Structure formats: structure tokens, C-alpha cells
Amino acid sequence: MSMNTIKNKDDYQNFYKMSLDDKDGFWAEVAGNYTWKKPWTSVQTGNFKDLNVKWFDGATLNITENCLDRHLETRGDKTAIIFEPNDPNGEVINFTYKELHARVCQFSNVLKAQGVKKGDRVCFYMSMVPELLIGVLATARIGAIHSVVFGGFSANALAGRIQDCEASIVITNDAGFRGAKTIPLKEITDEALKTCPTIKSVLVSKRVGEEVNMIEGRDHWLTPLLDSASCDCPAEEMGAEDPLFILYTSGSTGKPKGLLHTTAGYMVWAGETYKNVFQVGEDDIFWCTADIGWITGHSYISYGPLLNGSTQVMFEGVPTYPDAGRFWEATEKHKVTHFYTAPTAIRALEAHGTDFVNKHDLSSLKVLGSVGEPINEEAWEWYNKNVGKEKCPIVDTWWQTETGGIMISPLPNVGDFIPSFAEAPLPGVDPIFVDADGKKVEGSPAEGNLCIRTPWPGMARTIWGDHERYKQTYFSTYPGLYFTGDGAKRDDQGRYRITGRVDDVINVSGHRMGTAEVEDALNQHEDIVESAVVGYPHDIKGQGIYAYVIWNPQSSKAQDHKAIHKELNEMVIKMIGPIAKPDKVQVVSGLPKTRSGKIMRRILRKVASGETSNLGDTSTLLNPEVVEEIKSGAL
Ligand code: PRX
């Protein structure tokens, strides 16, 4: 059987069956699509009990040879990247595979000259400019580990991530363009670095032309270093399980976790999922609108498209700048065939009406994608009708930072494309539902907590520096299974529908956030006695952030709830970033607690969702009287 693209239902069924029945045989054949320096001695070893999963052990390779070098002969002059700048009248910059290869080699040599070695951690805090993508690949080329921090995070959040992985170098911009705003990235970096003693050097890529403070000996402008570096840099020979990158994400408890992805398994997963889910042809143009600061940008900008030799658009800006037609204008301009975005963007654009879409010729589009949160039916229909003109399959791709790549999705030519259904597991993905008591739920229709039964190549291998936490977080709720944190349903034909998180993680505009993390930020305010944060349904963002706070009654602002909200926003912006600002802040005199002192979040969630009648049994609460107060003050 050819391991090329899944083209129809039969292919899908054969591939899927084989991937579970003869796992090693299946993946050995798939891995044959890639370039290795040394072959593997075993395809997969280890299990979820001992958490020692390895893929393609014994093999050596470099992922950038697979993204770049191997295309040089056949696709050297093909465009790899079309850079669409924030300003629609700004300069579009194209990079062929040859040019991208040369730039990556130069950047690799710059990193080496800064003393970066195999295994060192390289932090990126940048806007969506080509140097970010080039730098990420350069890091992988020399065997160092990249940790990209989204440019919207605060100095405090950046510092925490640098400290956790003990990065030795950070690469940033003077400032970044983001719609009508600029973000002072270097200034924020300087603030963060006050508490990051491991950082030896800072490379600054000029983008906005902002004046910045350069510290002698530590800070260097990137461009002159790149210009004088050689365009030749041999790729480091990496072990299959050598670390490739760390990416921080939020969970129900504690600080963000640095998930570690390793080289070979991640490569095969990013490459194969991209190939099968999007089915991008040789002359097609792919565009994923995510930021490289998130996993979607890692797998479907930095790696997946390049592994497959595609041409892709990389976009610096935001969907509503200069107006809500920006995505469609750029789609027309670059004749985009495959477009991958988040439901929150679709809902935001929907609110601006169809004129912005209809102005543009979108006839190049073939496949549309959705990622990051459940897509509601209305947004799905709008996307299908106005953007896809009812002729483009919509791949609603379910996956996570932890999974490395897409896990459940309809495939073009295979799926039924029912609004809000992710439909079917990809080859190699073995989902199982478990009920609240830990019992497996077989058959269809069914619903339960979504778990995965067996290792797949793209799974994160650990949490950086804390294997025990990795085990606790994902493998202890249901021993022997990977627990996703999501709830799901299967219809009578076995098609999957993801219903959302079942833990204390909320998804705000496709950004994953721990409620505990937001509470920690709120609690830093000196007048906060206690806080509880929950999600509630929000028309555009999917979920909004609702904070219940007990405010110091002695404080002068105690009656001024507007001022309290403003101060808390500032605190959250400082501790995390603007994406975590509470949408609503309700000042309360107490929080509903059980006799053992636990906050009853169920009640808070219901009130925040506007459901005040059916709150269930509140008689066991320590302080049932606060429930009335909370209900009557609901925002
Ligand atoms: O709740 C699920 C939701 O996003 C979570 C993963 O977030 P993150 O690690 O930031 O990765 C986002 C990009 C892959 C999941 O646990 N999620 C992601 N995609 C979907 C989704 N929920 C429903 N449908 C999806 N297609």
C-alpha cells in the first residue's frame, strides 16, 4: 500500500485499521517518506504505565533536512514562504526553498557564534515575522531546543518561561506590529530579563524601527550578524528522541507547563497529519493564520507545510486590520487554496457582516480548516456559505499542545462534514471514552471523557524538568490512558463531537487558560481577599472570563466596582497578558464553599452562564446565604 495521501473512505478505513493492527509495520512504512541519517532499531517502545514512550529509537536525523535540504533539488526555486505584512500596502517578501535554506543556515551560524550548543534552550519572543520562523528552524538545525513565547504575554509571563527552562539566549524584535498597535517587545524583554540570570545574550531583529536600549555585551542587532554569516551550516545529527522544542501551556492547576516534544515522532506526526488532513497539492497555497507562539503555528506553519514542500502564507497581522476583510483580501491576493483558522476569528468576522467577504474573489479556496475550540453551528454555517461557497470541505481539527498534531478530524474526500463534528480519528489515534467513575464506555452512540489508549508518534514525552507532573496531569486520572481533559460524544455512526473541557481550563478566543492561573494573578492585588474565576459562554470569544472577587471592604474603592475591574485588568495584564483580562468582575462578600473549604465552582459557573434557577443542592454549603447574594448581583 502506498503511504501517500488518504484519498477516499476505503483508504481511510484501510490505513486506520492497519495503523492499529500492525502499528510497527504501518509507521515504518510511513517513516519511509522522510530522510534519516541512520535507521531506527525499533519503531515504538514503552507504554503509558511506565511513561517511557519512544518512537524510531536508534534512528538519527535532523528535522530541518526534511523541511529544507531534501527539497532543494526538486523544489529549490519553489516559493516556501509568502510573507504578508501587517500593513496591507507593505512589502510582501517571498522566500524560495533555496533562500529559506540559506537564511536558516546563516541564522544557525549566528546562534553557534553566540555559543549556543546542542541541547541549549533558545527563547523566541517575537512578532510573526520571517526571522521567527527562520530562527526556530535554525535552532533545530544545530540541535538546540526552541521555546517560543507568544508576543502577547507580559514580562512576568516571559520571565517565568525563561526561568523554567533556563534559556541562555532570547531572540526578540525592537517592537512588533499588531494591527494598529505596536508592541514594545524589546522593552518587555528587558523587564523580564531583570529576573533571568541564565540569559547570556539577546538578539534583536529590527522591525518597527523603535528606539531601544541595547546593553553592551549582552544585546546584538540580528541583521548585521546574519549578513556576515555563512550560508552553509551542516545539520546536527539528532537522536530520534532528542528534544526538539518546549512549548508552555496552561492546565487546571499551577504554573504553565513546558511540554516537551522530541524529534522523529513529532516530525512524522506533523508531516503526515498535514498531508492527510489538508491534502495540499504541489501548486496549492496553504495559509494557517495562527501565531507561531502556539502549537498550531509550530505544527502547521514551522513544520508541517515545509516537511511536505508546500508554499504557505505567513501573516504578521490580525484579521480585523485595517478592516474585517483582511483575511479575504489576502486570500484573493495570494490565491490561497487551503485556509486554516480559529472559530473565534470566524465569529468576530461574522459580526462585521458579509460585505467584507463578498468583495473578494475567493474562488481559489479548496479546503477550509478550524482549530482551537469547538466551532458552533452558526459559525460553521457562515464559514461554509460565505467563505467556502458551499464547495469547500471544512476540516474541524481537534488536537492539543500535548498531542503535537491533529488527532481527530474529517478528511477531504472522506468526511461527512457535519457542523461541529470532528468526526474521525486519524490513523494511529486510538480514542476511548471513560465515564466519571473511570469505566470505559464502549459502542455508539456514547459520551464520556475523551482518552487515548495507545502512544502515537506526536505525543509530548514529558513536562520539562517535571516528569512526575506529566504523569500526574495526564496519566493518573485513568491509569493506563492519556486523559485529554475534554469531553466528547460519538453519534450512532461513531462520529466524534468534542464538547469542551471538563476540567478547570477555559478556552478564551482559542487561547487556553487555567482558571487558577488567572486567580493567582488577581490575588496579587493587595485589596483582593479571595477570588474565583470561571468561564461563561461568550458570543465571539467562545468563553469569557468571569471573576468573582472578595475585595477588602476597608479599601477606599470598595464601592466603585468599575475602578476595581480596571485595577484587576491591569494586574492581569502585568502578570499574564491582555488575553487573560476578566470580561466580568463581580464583587462578592463570600464564595460558596463546601464544609471542607472547597469553592463550589459548579454554582459559580451556572450563575456566570446566566442560569440562576437550577443551581442544584446548596444545603451542604458552609455558607448557603452567599448564593442568594451572588445570584442577585450576577452580571
Ligand atoms: O478543548 C480542546 C480545544 O483546545 C484544547 C487544546 O488547546 P491547545 O493546547 O491550546 O491547542 C489548541 C490548538 C490545537 C483542547 O483540549 N480544541 C482544540 N481544537 C478543538 C478543540 N475543541 C473542539 N474542537 C476542536 N476542533
Question: Explain this structure to me?
Answer:
The chain is α/β, with parallel strands linked by helices. The chain folds into two domains: 3-318 and 397-488, 3-Layer(aba) Sandwich (Rossmann fold); 509-632, ANL, C-terminal domain (GMP Synthetase, Chain A, domain 3, 2-Layer Sandwich). Helix 5 crosses helix 6 (130-141), helix 7 (155-165) crosses helix 8 and helix 13 crosses helix 15 (377-387). The longest helix has 17 residues, at 97-113. It is globular. The mean pLDDT is 96. Bound molecules: adenosine-5'-monophosphate-propyl ester. The site of adenosine-5'-monophosphate-propyl ester (PRX) has 23 residues, from helix 11, strand 19, strand 20, strand 25 and strand 26.
The outline comes out as: globular
Q: Give the count of helical stretches.
A: 20
CATH arch. level architecture of the largest domain: 3-Layer(aba) Sandwich
User: Considering DSSP H and I runs of 4 or more, what fraction of the residues is helical?
Assistant: 25-40%
Cα Rg: 24 Å
What is the CATH C level class of the largest domain, in words?
Alpha Beta
Strand content: 15-25%
Structural class: alpha/beta
As laid out across the biggest beta sheet, the strand order is 12-11-8-6-7-14-15-24
Per CATH, the superfamily of the largest domain is: ANL, N-terminal domain
> What is the first-to-last residue Cα distance?
59 Å
CATH topology of the largest domain: Rossmann fold
Poorly predicted runs of 5 or more residues: none
For the biggest sheet, the summary is: 8 strands, mixed
Q: Hetero groups bound?
A: adenosine-5'-monophosphate-propyl ester
Strands, total number = 31
